[in-house]
Amino acid sequence: MTGQRAAAEPYTTRFETGVTAVDGRRVWLERSYFYGAIGGQPADQGRIADTEVVDVEYVDGTQVHVLAEEPTLRTGQRVLCSIDWAFRMYCMRAHTASHALYGAARELLEDLEHGGLEFDGEDAVRVTLETTTAVDDETLLALNERLNRVVWESRPVSWDTISLAEARERDDVVFTDATEESAQENGRVRVVTIGSADENGNGSGTSRLSGGFTVGNGGEPWDVAACGGTHVRNTREIGPVTILGRVPTAAGALEIDLAVGQRAIEQRTAEKRAALTATRTLEASVDAVPSALERAYDRDPTGPESYTDD
User: Which residues form the signal peptide (predicted)?
Assistant: First the structure.
């Protein structure tokens, strides 16, 4: 937790420091802002001096930097380090999006627990939820809509450390075994909070969404969770985000795939293209497409099975 300076200062991507040890391609630094892979979030990319960093391990509270080749570095040497900003920012956006999703899930799903987070490169993020609620298409759409609404509301994101005892006592803090390793150290826990809509002047109360669901009181924090990852300072920095789909796993578990950034833009474009094709083919508005498809299927039940991409 506190050993990961990247989590405390995620916008730092260039720094100078001293080399404390070198062992082949493995390098230890006096001070590092590289994020070491832990808790489902991948390691930062970048360079130490002129050599590429291909991995960063987090071992016993220390970052171990694995370089692409053996460097010509020596202990005590001062080096300039740079972190790949594009990948760091992607991880910040995607990790914060997972918190925003969990906040939405807490309003819609019963007996909810956080089961884990896994990055699939820069393609998608998989959030595992444990819940007794069956997530149908309407619920998935409501989750997606609430997730995007929180981005639109520009809610502040902050992080701080509290005692382990306080974290376990507070009902509002999401604190599970999945977050323990990356979030706590020396009896302290790092807590990340997505604040209320009121904090950015968006007003309080509720607003109705298209699925018939409502957003809760704008004065309450959206999500408070023990977490050791990197995050953006405001939900608007998440940018384009969309839910790709869901995968039921073991009993009571559900995996939801999120896309952030370019993949989200591509997914939205594909969905828009499909919607436009459907409206043109069925001669119906977007809202009327589902009922038009049902009528078309009733007329020819074998039709959908005969469709091809040709």
Answer: none
